[in-house]
Amino acid sequence: MLSFLLLLATTLATDFNANAVRAHVKFLSSDLLEGRGPGTRGDALATGYIAAQFESYGLETTLQKVSLLGITTDESKTEVAFTKDGKALGAPLKYRDQFAGGDQTQGTESPLDSEVVFVGHGVVAPEYRWDDYKGLDTRGKTLVMLVDDPPASASEPDLFKGRARTYYGRWTYKFETGTAKNAQAVILVHTSDAAGYGWQVVRNSWSGEQAYVRKPAGEHGLSLAAWITEPVAQELFRASGHDLAALTKAAASRDFKPVPLGIRLKGHIGSTIRAFDTANVVAKLEGSDAKLKNEAVLYSAHHDHLGIGSPDPADPGDAIYNGALDNASGVATLLELARVWSSTTPRPKRSIYFAAVAAEEQGLLGSRYLAAHPPIPAENIALGINLDELYFFGDVQSVVMLGVERTTFFPTAQAVTKELGLTIMPDQAPEQGSYYRSDHFSFGKVGVPAFTIKQVAGSDAQRAFFKDFKDKRYHQPNDEFDPSWNFASVSQIARLAFRLGEEAANAAQPSSWLPGDEFARKK
Asked: Is residue 61 part of a domain?
């Protein structure tokens, strides 16, 4: 139990200013910043603004350069089609409308000519005795696969963690595995249920510039990493003499074997390539303990979004993906946390780092770089708290902390939320694999116990807000600042993040993943 004096100090220190958060969100999501696409003018304005704010709080601030390649599919030099017996199955696929994706070889042009094989979920998981490839020679082939985990069953309700999605169900795993197996192309079959979002999200996320870390010379890359719509997939399977629904059902079994479709992928991909730099903005508040100041708590939020892309069909005049909730909201809250921490006395025993990371929308590239090049050794980071896509819909009673239950910090998190009149709820959509979709995942992979805080919609109005965002704003141009937003929950979430960090920063022992967890450090 906190002493009266410590409770008083905490109350005074955590006087969070919702108007400051509102102002940060309004600026960072303004048209002036052009959607904060990595390596653009808007990206530079965002990183400069964030750094200036950190410096104004008296924090030691650095820009960690992240060098990337931006690859944009050149529609005029791209043609993708399926053929059977040398004849095209209809017209070439329409970019954005029927397929989205691009070339990962990091070259300007790649020919396509390969046998198409359906590989179920495209999963190799020895711990579940699962192998969708079963000795298939994948070199140079086009692998078509489903976007999710193999499903659990009545006899194995915990297979692939049951309803929860594992990393095996993420598109990143699918493309990584196809690359490692030297496939020419990997094509994912989109359904809204499997992906967790509609085709418009794929269209908007995958039809603009994609950023990548430069490959070493000679390293293999996919000539096409793409998604196709469900109707295109149904027609592809029908032309091969198969049924998509029937093969999807067959793929739910360990006995599934790859199915050659008797079809070839033909065409070519043209790309424009741009080398550029973006940056992680990292600020430090040094701890007060002579020994523990060499350890730290890390707060993070990604500052990028999708930049300027294809216009919204519902509003052809708007092509700026402002990213107000995703993720100006998290960065604004991160800045307010930094301001409060900078004026808190006494200072925490461990140091506090604040990281506004780059290129999250491109595959967590900024946080991945920071995790590989941390300001202190990763094993000295006691806790990671990430802020991504916060909702300005008023006070809440419950929160989700994605992954916290898998750490030794969980009892402390429960005590802190109870102290603040909140309840920790389990992941509200575990089938979407949210743990693997935000920057805490990058830190988790290097052993840092890390999680993201999310609000839980409690009222009908809040649920309507959430549904409207997911259906009409997520990764779309109209994720824009709304002056009618209720910022009341800003203080709740910021105070919660502060108290969690305070407990971790002053704890006698650092937190860790529970023994046996996939991220637990090997002894």
From this structure: no
